[in-house]
């Protein structure tokens, strides 16, 4: 202490102005406490940075690599046409798309064509109305559809048309309209477009394997049964493809009565009268009329199973799905919806 007083005195200050010195060991303790405090702050800062980085990695993993569907416990959703964001019952197309479990519906042969048609309508005009999660689910469901077709080797033409429609819509949105209309990074959508091209290439290169079946074939059936089965086909392109299998089937596929019934099934009498085509023999060429009619008018849609809307409680669900309906007879309150009617529900 004497040396410190001398130092203060030599600096020009009297000895009684010297600050009181701490007891021995206190200065070391204070220094150690300060070091610990700085160390704790550094640990807290590093912990925060680690948590932020971990959350970011988890978010990137979900956004870029997740193949799982976002499921909800209830397989129905409340929809009311007069609802808004400020009123009860407001629901978006993306929310309904997430809640109604389309991922499982594609595994049901009765619902497959319905879901594919719905995906096509969304690709044409409603893709930008989907949320980010709904768009991700859309692509995941589409990938499952492609994988199912590659495994089953069925509905190949149907999925080719769906992929072409989606790719054309994305090209328009990305190149002409601009990237701001799509949710997510533009590079992610470019990657999705590359995936669509890859799926198209896979479908183009698919090799149909002939089943090892030695029993009765379609051509072994009587002609009346063959015609009866061919009348069940609702797409004229399927009739043309069937006629290319064997010469005998080619003759049956040109049957005038077969094409007449197909025209009458899809189109009204008024529509048919506006598109009359005569053959060289002076008879109505129903086959040419059919392909001309489908270019002018929509065909009649037919599905094994559809979504249903309960008129009493305004709940949308698949047929056979239990929902909390308060009607005395819920079955009489359900109305089947076509894919276009499903889309129209969410045009507020």
TrEMBL record:
InterPro entries, A to Z: F-box-like_dom_sf, FBX25/32
BP-aspect Gene Ontology terms: protein ubiquitination
CDD domains according to UniProt: F-box_FBXO32 (cd22103)
Main location: cytoplasm
UniProt subcellular location: Cytoplasm; Nucleus
Function description: Substrate recognition component of a SCF (SKP1-CUL1-F-box protein) E3 ubiquitin-protein ligase complex which mediates the ubiquitination and subsequent proteasomal degradation of target proteins. Probably recognizes and binds to phosphorylated target proteins during skeletal muscle atrophy. Recognizes TERF1.
Protein name: F-box only protein 32
Species the sequence originates in: Zosterops lateralis melanops
């Amino acid at each position: 202490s004497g040396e410190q007083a001398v130092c203060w005195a030599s600096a020009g200050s009297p000895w009684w102005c010297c600050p009181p010195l701490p007891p021995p060991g206190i200065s070391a303790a204070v220094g150690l406490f300060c070091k610990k405090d700085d160390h704790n702050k550094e640990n807290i800062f590093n912990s925060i940075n680690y948590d932020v980085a971990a959350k970011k990695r988890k978010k990137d993993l979900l956004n870029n690599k997740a193949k799982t569907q976002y499921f909800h416990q209830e397989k129905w959703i409340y929809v009311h046409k007069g609802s808004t964001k400020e009123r009860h019952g407001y629901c978006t197309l993306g929310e309904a798309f997430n809640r109604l479990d389309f991922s499982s519906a594609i595994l049901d042969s009765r619902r497959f064509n319905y879901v594919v048609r719905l995906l096509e309508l969304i690709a044409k005009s409603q893709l930008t109305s989907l949320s980010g999660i709904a768009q991700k689910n859309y692509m995941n469901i589409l990938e499952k559809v492609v994988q199912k077709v590659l495994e089953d080797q069925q509905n190949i033409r149907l999925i080719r048309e769906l992929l072409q429609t989606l790719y054309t819509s994305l090209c328009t949105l990305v190149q002409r309209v601009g990237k701001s209309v799509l949710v997510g990074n533009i590079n992610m959508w470019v990657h999705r477009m590359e995936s669509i091209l890859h799926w198209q290439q896979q479908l183009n290169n698919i090799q149909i394997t002939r089943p090892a079946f030695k029993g009765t074939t379609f051509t072994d059936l009587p002609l009346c049964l063959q015609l009866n089965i061919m009348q069940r086909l609702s797409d004229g392109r399927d009739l043309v493809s069937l006629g290319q299998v064997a010469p005998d089937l080619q003759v049956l596929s040109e049957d005038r009565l077969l094409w007449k019934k197909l025209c009458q099934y899809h189109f009204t009498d008024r529509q048919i009268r506006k598109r009359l085509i005569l053959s060289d023999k002076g008879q109505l060429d129903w086959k040419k009329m059919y392909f001309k009619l489908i270019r002018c008018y929509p065909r009649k849609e037919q599905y094994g199973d559809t979504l249903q809307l309960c008129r009493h409680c305004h709940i949308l669900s698949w047929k056979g799905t239990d929902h909390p309906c308060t009607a005395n007879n819920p079955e009489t309150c359900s109305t089947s919806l076509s894919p276009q009617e499903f889309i129209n529900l969410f045009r507020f």
